[in-house]
Amino acid sequence: MKNWLNQEIFTVGVHNITYGIIIGLALIWLITWLTIRLSRYLIFRFRRFESGQKHAMFQLLQYLIIIIAILFSFETIHIRWNLIIASSAAILVGVGLGLQNLFNDFMSGIILLLDSTIQVNNIIQLEDNTIGRVEDIRMRTTTLKDREGRYIIVPNRLFTGNKVVNWTMEKQLNRFIVKIGVDYSSDVERVKNILYKAAENHSTVSKKPAPIVRISDFSDSAIVFELLYWSLDIFYMDNHKAEIRWEILHEFRKQNVTIPFPQRTVHMHK
Q1: pLDDT tens by residue, 69-95
Q2: Contact (CB, 8 A) for 110 and 142
C-alpha cells in the first residue's frame, strides 16, 4: 500500500505527483468543503446577529478557510508557499498601476464585510441615483437587485470611495414628499383633508408620526401643497407615491378641486 501511495503518476517541474499527493489534496478540499458548509450552518443559526452580519461573518470565515486549504495544498505538493508569495509580490509590483483598481476593490470588500455599514438586504442609493437591494457582498464586487428586477454588479471601491445612501441602515422610518398645485380659488381646507385622507388610506404610510400637509409656495398659477409622510417600505417608494397621487387626483375630480394649467400672458404690439 505504501509503495502504491508513493508511486509517481506525473511530474510538474521538479515535483513528482504521486497517488498519495492526489489523495491528500482530495481530502484537504473535501474537509474544506465540509468545514465551509458546517460554518454556514452554525453561523446562520445564531439569533443574536442580523442576516447581514451573519453573511459578512460567513464570507470572511469562508475566505480564511480557503486560504488555509491552499497553504496546506502547497505543503502537500512540497511547494514552499513563502516563495510563491514572494514571487507574487514581485509580479504585483511589476504589473503596478494595472492592478490598482482590483486591489482597491479587494480592500474595499474587506472593509464592507468588517464594518457592516452595508449589509445584505439593505436598500442603498449610489451617486448615480441607482437604487437597489444588496443581494450579495463578495471580496471584489457587490450584487444589487434594482426595482426592475435586474442584477447589478458594482465594484466595491464605489461604496468606500463615494457617497452612498443606506435607506435601511437603522431600520428607521424615512420621510417622503408628494407635491401638488391647486387653483387659487380652491377651498384649501378641503384640499388639506383630501391629502390627509390619501396618505392615511395607504397601507405603507406610518401612523406615527402622522402625515403632515403644508403649503410650500404660492406660484404664478397655483397654491403648492406638500404632503409629507413616513414609511418603512423604501424599495417601491415611487410606486407608493404614484398610488397616493392616483387617490388625490380621484378625490380632486370628485370634489371639483382644480389643478391649474400653467398660465402665461402674451402682449402683442403692432
Answers
A1: 888 887 777 766 665 565 555 555 555
A2: no
pLDDT in tens, 224-257: 999 999 988 878 888 899 999 999 999 999 998 8
Q: What is the DSSP letter of 96?
A: G
pLDDT digits (tens, 9 = 90+) for 95-123: 555 567 777 888 888 888 777 788 888 88
How many folded domains does the chain comprise? 3
Residue 222: DSSP 8-state: -
Domain hosting 113: range is 105-166
Cis peptide before 209 (omega within 30 of 0): yes
98 within a domain of the structure (yes/no): no
Dihedral (Cα; 24, 30, 33, 38), 10-degree rounding: -110
Residue 99, domain member (yes or no)? no
- 100 domain-assigned: no
Distance in angstroms (rounded) separating the CA atoms of residues 176 and 163: 20
**Are 64 and 133 in a shared domain?**
no
What pTM value is reported for the model? 0.60
AA letter at 123: I
